């Protein structure tokens, strides 16, 4: 895992000092591996009966309990996640109040194995309003020997009363150089130009970087840079971009463009004199508004792609100005 060292150190220090808070908010961008971190913590807690020395959350601990965790059958690790809503296995939009009620009923049972029960909520952002209120009551009066791990991609949107009941562990985007070295080690067959393009598009989020590996980021970046450098005076490049990302079958290509553009604009801003940065920032803001409006509505991918192309075209050098 990458990007977990600070959170792991903080948790182990609390455990070693026998100062474990009953609820932990694992907060940060989606794709940072917060759910995987919660799994590691849960495994660690149910395989270690008492506080003591441990160098890593991956310390195996008590073997019979570890085997149950490996098989996904440990009775004291409980989860709240969105459930499949139909035979197509599409996930429900929210974690429901009924799921929280079922969980609360389970908490009245005595421990059947070990000294601690662990509840993973992944993600707490997915709880419907009534479910959040129901869970809050449990966090306010937590059962003995029970620890909650609440995964959140948008902690600012949670009930303040939920945040106040938790100790927070922040998962920050990984440094550019660290991400580059990690991705190069993970996928040594990638050209360094592709690695750098993926790292820039990922925004320091490892999960997003891995998802981008098969997306030909470098080629798409070249197409976007061509619009920004030439201005695309005859609209040919923008029209080609719109065709490439339009329609439901090309949604992944549109998402790739949305991932790439912020990093691309940041790079353009860094390469320009201070006096020329403001127009780049203005187009960055315009791109963000375009994406927000698209996400809120049932949007036409081709239209979004063309508008993003318009933003980039505005950054081309004007007549009489040197190209950069």
List keywords for this structure.
alpha/beta; five-stranded parallel β-sheet; 8% strand; 5 strands; single chain; 324 residues; Rossmann fold; 2 domains
Polypeptide structure, described:
Strand 3 (117-122), helix 5 (129-140) and strand 4 form a beta-alpha-beta unit. The chain has a five-stranded parallel beta sheet, with helices on both faces. The protein is built from 14 helices and five strands. The radius of gyration is 24 Å and the shape is elongated. It has 324 residues and is α/β, with parallel strands linked by helices. The model has no long low-confidence stretch (mean pLDDT 88). Helix content is 52%, strand content 8%. The chain has helices at 5-16, 34-47, 63-70, 97-106, 129-140, 160-164, 176-186, 192-202, 206-212, 217-230, 236-245, 251-271, 277-296, 301-313; strands spanning 23-27, 77-80, 117-122, 146-152, 167-170. The chain folds into two domains: 5-170, P-loop containing nucleotide triphosphate hydrolases (Rossmann fold), CATH 3.40.50; 216-313.
